[in-house]
Amino acid sequence: MRRFTNGLIVLILAVPLWAQKIETATPSRDRVVPIHTALDHLTVIEVGEPVVTVAAGSAAFKVEWRDNKVFIEPTEPGVSTNLFIWTASSRLNYELESAGEVGKMDFAIDYPRPTPPPAAKMPNSSGSHVGIGDPPTKAFEIGPMLGGRPVRSELIKPSTHGVDVFLKDLFEQSDTLFIRYEIRNNTKGVYVPGNPRVFALNGVQSPEFLVGRENSQLSEPEALRLKAKSQLLLPVVDGKLRSTQLAPGEETVGVVEIKLPPSRQKASVLRIDFSQDRRGPVTATLVL
Fold first, then answer.
1. How many C-alpha atoms does 32 have within 13 Å on its Cβ side?
2. Nearest to 198 by CA among 271, 274, 140, 264
3. What pLDDT, on the 0 to 100 scale, is given for residue 14?
4. Which of 155, 154, 159 lies closest to 184, judged by CA?
5. Cα separation of 69 and 65, whole Å?
6. Could you give the 3-state DSSP secondary structure of residue 248?
7. Closest residue by Cα to residue 39 from 63, 71, 78, 74
8. What is the DSSP pairing of strand 216-218 with strand 106-110?
9. Which of 122-126, 160-164, 209-213 is predicted least confidently?
């Protein structure tokens, strides 16, 4: 009888652990997913592509990310907040519930890798087709540029009430540079980006934060610390914007083609200016 009772106690104690959840979800920017947490425990969100940035509404939750994984740990009881995760192709929305029982928490949420659309070959003026390693044509395929190189933007934090510009990837050929970018309107009004103007910053002093930052977009505080002797307005050869105006909460992508100056330093800096929003200038600073 005692042996049976001991076994029953072990079984009862094990039951709450069965409620701990490891789920597989489908990414959707139109849905808010509740997440149940517990003190001194991590919840892991593993998305199908690298994370660009995250933002939480309260410091009561410790949120870190590496590659395609986001780690969440509550540090205070009785606090709930929201969490946003941005990837290259989507935004994920969550409501972080206040820390509760371990047996009811979400241990992990897994997302499948996004299925890339079939690569369409586009005819160019010579009658051949655009393939891997070819530059974008004048038609401007606004998707990821084949043969290009991605722009790193780990330090770029999304704003809550402004317009954000995220540089996505580059394609350089001879003295021509193609830049693909994304614009998000976080204001309460309609935003019209307009045609971007691109400046080469000459004689930039080389502070420590520029070392090893090639192919990177600088954060706003870093860009404000730059000191250039002069700036040169570069010719914009062509450009394409998927949406010419953005309602509140909307985003779009575009490509701009510019002519680089004939002689430039190995690690030159470009500043891309768009139309101002209600707060002031909307810019993106790129280290080549």
1. 7
2. 271
3. 43
4. 159
5. 6
6. coil
7. 74
8. unpaired
9. 122-126
Distance CA 85, CA 33 (A): 12
Question: Tokens 């891309």 appear where?
Answer: 272
Task: Report the run of H or E that residue 10 belongs to, with start and end.
Answer: helix 2-18
Which residues contact residue 174 at a Cβ distance below 8 angstroms, ignoring those fewer than 6 apart? none
Rounded Cα distance, 174 and 141, in Å: 20
> How many whole angstroms separate alpha carbon 261 and alpha carbon 239?
18
Give the pairing of strands 251-259 and 176-185.
antiparallel
Burial class (CB in 10 A: 0-12, 13-18, 19+), 79: middle
In the block, which residue shows the tokens 């519930």? 97
Distance CA 123, CA 118 (A): 16
CB neighbourhood size of 67 (10 A): 10
CB-CB contact of 129 with 123 (8 Å): yes
d(CA 256, CA 156): 21
**Residues 6 or more apart in contact with residue 144 via CB below 8 angstroms:** 168, 169, 180
Please identify which residue in the block is written with the tokens 């409501």. 95
The count of other CB atoms within 10 Å of the CB of residue 29 is 12
Q: Which of 112, 109, 135 is nearest to 122 (CA)?
A: 135
**CA 116 to centroid of chain Cα atoms:** 18
Query: Residue 122: which of 113, 131, 133 has the closest Cα?
Result: 131
Say which residue, 144 or 18, is predicted with more confidence.
Answer: 144
pLDDT digit string, tens, across residues 91-111: 889 999 999 999 889 988 988
Degrees, nearest 5: CA angle 254-140-267: 65
Q: What is the pLDDT of residues 187-240, one digit of tens each?
A: 989 999 988 999 998 888 766 777 778 889 999 888 888 888 888 999 998 888
Task: For residues 174 and 60, give the distance between their C-alpha atoms in angstroms, rounded to a whole number.
Answer: 50
